[in-house]
Write a structure and sequence with these properties.
By secondary structure, this protein is of the alpha+beta class. The chain is 26% helix and 44% strand. The mean pLDDT is 94.
């Protein structure tokens, strides 16, 4: 497996201050009906696209929310459909926007970190919740 075979993608762990809890935060998860899974918003880079630009584009496309990027989070590497995939992640605070269901993402949820960790399908995505919390407490 060489680097040219690697699928490059980017995404964000999207968060906001909870409108229902004093000083708490919520994490946005997306539901992809094609895979029937819950994950963080992410997607493949377009030709010539910068990683961070791709991450912000994917958040907007999948959640309908604009965001302010923060700390760089760990990059996830795994096999997807027999090909190596590398996904760069950032912490990102949601600012404005409104979700509209689409073919790729049919639902989103905003959950406190423990509930988000529980709802996520992949263990690697759960680790990103911990990385987000660590980044927010050190910045």
């Amino acid at each position: 497996m060489n680097g040219e075979d690697t699928v490059l993608a980017a995404g964000c762990v999207l968060w906001r201050r909870s409108p229902h809890r004093h000083e708490g935060l919520e994490i946005c998860l997306v539901h992809r009906p094609k895979y029937d899974d819950w994950s963080h918003p992410k997607g493949k880079l377009k030709r010539g696209e910068d990683m961070l630009a791709a991450a912000l584009r994917e958040v907007l496309e999948e959640t309908g929310h604009r965001c302010v990027p923060g700390a760089r989070l760990p990059t996830c590497r795994y096999l997807a459909h027999g090909r190596p995939k590398q996904v760069a992640y950032w912490a990102a605070e949601a600012t404005t926007g409104c979700f509209a269901a689409g073919e790729e993402v049919d639902r989103i949820v905003w959950l406190p970190p423990p509930a988000a960790r529980e709802r996520l399908t992949q263990p690697r995505d759960r680790e990103l919740v911990d990385a987000l919390l660590q980044a927010l407490h050190t910045t």
